[in-house]
Amino acid sequence: MKKIENFISPFLFVLVFLIYAVSVSKTIAFWDSSEFIASNYHLQATHPPGAPFYTLLCNLVLLFFPSTWAAFISNLISAFFGALTVMYVYKIVKHISLKISENKNTVSILSAVVSSLTLAFSDTFWTASTEAEVYTLSVFLLMFLFYLMLLWHSEKDQSKELKIVFLMVFLLGISLGVHLINLSIVVPLSIIYVHKKYGLQWKSLLLALGVSVVLFLSLYLIGIQGFLKIAYWLDMKLVNSLSWPVNSGLFLLILIFLGILFSGLYFTKKKYPPIQKYIVALLLFSVGASSYLIPLVRNHVESSISNQIYTSNDLLKYIQAKQFGVQDTPLLKGKICNAPLDKDFPFVDGEPIYDYNAVSKKYELVDDGKWSKVNYAHEFDMFFPRMYSQKSSSIALYSSWVAIKGEKLMYPVLGKEKTIFKPTFSENLEFFKNYQVEWLYLRYLYWNFIGKQNEIKGTGTVFNGNWQSGITFFDADRIGAQEDIPERYKQDKSNDVYYFLPFIFGLIGLWSLRKQGVYFFSTLIFFLTFGIGIIIYVNPLPESILIRERDYIFMGSFIIFSIWIGLSLLSLNEWASKIKSEKLRVSILAIVVFIMSPLQLLAKNWDNHQRTGDTFAYDLAKKYLDSCPKEAILITNGDNFTFPLWYLQEVEHYRSDVRVVNYDLLNLSYYIDKLKNKNFSSDPLKISFSYENYREGNPKLYPLKIDTKEHVDLASLFQFLNDENTKITWNGKKQHYIPGDVFQIKIDTTQSIFSNIDKKRLNTQFTNQITWKFSKDFYQLNDLIGMNLILENIQERPICFLVNGNREHYLGFQNYLVHTGFVEQLLPLERIDKEMNPKIVNTLESNLLFQKNSFVFENDSDIFIKSENREYAQTIIRRNDYFLVQALVEENNIEEAEKVLDRSFKNLPDGKIPYKQYAFALGKLYYKIGQKEKGNEVCLKSLNNIWEELEWITSFNSSTNPIINVKHAVKLKEMYEQMIVQLEPFNPERALEEKQKAIEFNAYFTKWHIRNWPY
C-alpha cells in the first residue's frame, strides 16, 4: 500500500504533464509569451520588473535545442512546472488532511487527488501551463515553500527544522527572480510559524499578520530597494570623485555586505549560535536573490527586445517598474481623479536627477528637481484612493463603473473659481467593489469554479467575459435569460458552466478546516493575500481591462481554493456517517466529488484549451514582415504587434533586414540609442535629435505654442529643438516647445529608393514635399523621435506603418500612405485626379500577399479560436480585404474583386468570425460588382447579428454595470441605424422593413434607457 501511495504523486505529475504537452502551442502566442521566448533564448532582460531566474533557467534548457524549437520548449517548461505544482498541491492536501482526519489515509489521498486535478484542469491554470510565461514556475515555488513550511511545522528534530528553514529562505530569494509578488508568501507562512512557537490566539494571530507585513515591506523596500539606493549613492561618489568604473559602488557594497556576513559567521560561531543562524539565512536569501544581477551582467545584449540596465540606479528603476508609472500609484492616501493643481504651489521641488554619461564616464545632473513635481490641491486628498488617475481616459471610465455625482466644491483654477464635483468616499469604495474586487478578482475566481460565459475580453457588457453558472436564477440578472442570448454565444467553445459545484465544494472544504486554526487561517490568509491583497496593492486602473484579462495574477488564490475543494471530502465524509460502511461511503463521495469537480472541468475545458493548431500570432507576424520592402523601417505599437515580430527576427532570423520600431518605446532613452546600432542584418538608423534632449531625466512632453501659421519645416524644427537657446520658461522651468502644428518634409524624388514605384498603376504622381497637420496640446518624446526617424531615413529606407486598427503610431501621415498587404508605406505620392478615393492601395502586391493566406477558419473545423485571433481577424484581416476589394473595384477589376470577396468570406465565415460592421462594409462591395444575392447574404446576416445583440442587451435591466451596458446599447443602436441607411441604395425593400422595425423599437429603447441610466 505504501508503494502505491508513493506512486500517486509522480503519476499525477506525468499524467498532467502529458495532458498539458498535448495542449500546448507549438509556437508563439500573443502578449508576453514571444518576448519571454526571445529573452530566454538570448538571456536578456525582459520588461520590468523582470524575471531573471526564470530567464536563466529557460536559457539553460534551450541550449540543448535548435532555435526553431525555442517556442515549443519554452511552452513545455511552463507545462512542466504546472504539472510539478499539481504534484505539490497533492502533497500539501494529503499532509493537511492526514492531520485533521485522524489519519484516515484513504480519505486523505482521495482529497489530495481531487484538489490537485481540480487545479490542473481549472481554466486559468491550464491556460498558464500551455504558454511561455513566468506564472507556473512562480506558483510552483509558492507551493513548494508552503509545503516546506508544513513539514517544518510537523518536524520535531531541531537540526532538520533548521535545514528546512535554510532551504526555504534560499528558495524565497530565488522566487524573487521569478516574480516579486512571491515575497508576499511571508504573510500566510507567519501564521504557521506563530502557531508552532506560541500557539494561535487572536492576539498572536494579529501580531503575526502585523509583523509579517512589516517584514514584507522591509525586505522589499529596505532590503532590496534600499540596498540599491545605497549602491547608487556610493557609485556616484566613487565614479565622480575617484574616477572608478561605473557600478563600482554596487560591487563594492556587495563585497562589504558579504564581508560583514562572513565576519558575523566567524564571530558568532561559538558565542552566539542563534544569531549565526539568522546570518546564514540572510546569506542564503541574498544568494537566491542574486539572479537580479543578470540584467547588469547581460547589458551588452542589445537586441530590440532587451531592456538595457547599465547602472545600479537603472536596476532600481527596473525593479520598481518606473517605466509603467507604478511608483505614482497611491495606497493609503492620495489625490482623487479630478483634483486640481494647488492654487498656491501647483509645482514643488522633486528629487534631483542624475544620469550616467558613457562618454564622460561621469554621473551628470540632468534635472535639479526645482518645480519638477506636480502638486495637487490637498482638499481633494482621500483615504484609500481607488479613483486616482488624472488621465482623461481613466476619468471617463471611472464614471462608467460607478455613478459619480460627487460632493460640490468651489476651488480656484487658473485664477477663477470653478465648481468641481469631488467623488465621495462612498463612490470611491463603490468603484473598489464594482470594478477592482468584483470585476477584476471575484469574476476570475467564479470563472474557474462556477463557470464562464466565454473567454472574449470582458469590458463590462453583458456579451463577453462574465461569469456564468448555468442556472438561470443566478445568471439572468447579469446576462439575461437563455432564450434571449444569440445561438453563437451559447455555442462558443469557451462557454463552460459548472453549476456552482466546485465552488460549493470549496466552501465546504474551508469549513472542514474550522477546528484546525493553523490550517484554516494560513490557507485563508494565503487566499486573501494573493487575491484581494494584490488588488489593494496594485490599485488597477479601469483601462487595464481594455487591454487584456488579468486572471493569471491571482493563481495563488485559485490554488488555495482548489485545495479547499479536495478537503470538502472530509466534511462530506462526516455528514454521510449514516452510511455505515466507510469504504462504501468514501467511495461514493469520492466518485461524486471527482465527477462534479476535476472530471467536469476536464471535460468542459478540454476543447477551449487545445492550442496545438494555433499559429495565428506566428502567421500574422510573418505577414507583417513579408509586407515590408527590403531594409524597411516598420513602425508598430502594442505588445501583440511587436513582440511576435521581434521573436521571428531574433530567434528564427526571419526578415531581420526589417527594423521593427515600437512607437511606445520611443519614450525610453536606451531604446532610442539602440536604434542607432546595427541589429542583426538591419543597418543603424539615423537620428539627429540631440541626446541631451532625450536622455533620462529630461522632460518627455513638449507643449504646443504656435508661433506661426505657416508650415514648420521638420529639418528646421529639429535644429530649433537642438538649440538650448530656444527654450522658454514653462511652469517655472526651461523647456523646449513646438512652434506650430503643420509640418513639412522636403523630398528628393530622384533618389533611387523611389525609382521602382509604379506611379501610373497607382494613379498617382510624385510630390516634392510631404505636408501634414499633426496637432496636440503636448507632443510626447516618442512623437518627436518618430518624426525625426522619418525625416532622417525616408530618402534611404522604406518607411512602413503596421496596420492594426490603431493610428496613434501613424503620426498624422495618413494622407501619404500606400496600403500594401498588412502595412502602409509612407511615400511622397498624391492622386493625379483629386476626385479619386484618397486611399491608395497597391492591389498587385496586396493580392499576392492575401492569396498566400494562412488565416483560414473553416466552419467545420474543431480548432478553438482564441479571442485575440477573432478580434484581429475582424479588425485587421477583414479591413485589409475591404481596402483591397474597394481598390480593385475602382480599378474596374471586377473579376478579381469577386475572387477576393469570395475567398474572404470562405476563410472567415460567420460561424467562426461573426459578421459585424467590417463584414457589412465588405458585403456592400458585392452589390457594387453586381452580385446582389451574395451582398444580401452577408449584409443581412451582419445586420441581424447586430440586431440580436441589441435585442439581448435591452431584454432585461442588468444590475451589473448598467452604465456600461447602456452606453454600449446606444452604440449598437446607432450602428444598426447606420447600416440600414447604407443598405437602402442596394436593397430598398429590406431597408424599409428594418427601418420600420427600428422606429417601433425606439419607443421601447427610450423607456429601457431611462430605467437603466443612473445619472
Map the helices and strands.
Elements (H helix, E strand, L loop, with lengths): L1 H22 L9 H10 L9 H11 L7 H31 L4 H16 L2 H6 L6 H20 L3 H19 L9 H13 L3 H41 L5 H21 L4 H17 L4 H4 L14 H9 L12 E3 L11 E2 L4 E5 L4 E6 L5 E2 L6 E3 L8 H10 L5 E7 L2 E7 L2 H25 L1 E2 L19 H8 L7 H4 L5 E2 L3 H12 L4 H13 L2 H7 L5 H4 L7 H21 L6 H24 L10 H11 L6 E4 L6 H8 L8 E4 L6 H7 L15 H4 L6 E3 L8 E2 H8 L6 E3 L2 E3 L6 E5 L17 E3 L2 E5 L4 E3 H13 L5 E4 L14 E4 L2 E4 L2 E3 L8 E2 L1 H9 L15 H24 L3 H14 L9 H12 L3 H22 L8 H22 L4 H25 L3
Parallel strand pairs: 11-12, 11-21, 14-17, 22-25
Antiparallel strand pairs: 1-6, 2-5, 3-4, 7-8, 9-10, 13-20, 15-16, 17-19, 18-24, 21-23, 22-23
Helix pairs in contact: 1-4, 2-3, 2-26, 4-5, 4-7, 4-23, 5-23, 5-24, 7-8, 7-9, 8-12, 9-10, 9-20, 10-11, 10-14, 11-12, 19-23, 20-23, 23-24, 31-32, 32-33, 32-34, 34-35, 35-36, 36-37
Task: Describe the model.
With 1015 residues, this protein is of the alpha+beta class. 54% of the residues lie in helices and 9% in strands. The chain is built from 37 helices and 25 strands. 43% of the residues are buried.
Give the key terms.
alpha+beta, 37 helices, globular, 1015 residues
Q: List unreliable stretches of 5+ residues.
A: none
Mean pLDDT: 93
Please state the oligomeric state of the protein chains shown. Answer: single chain
The major sheet is characterized as: 6 strands, mixed
- Trace the largest sheet across and list its strands: 12-11-21-23-22-25
Broad structural category? alpha+beta
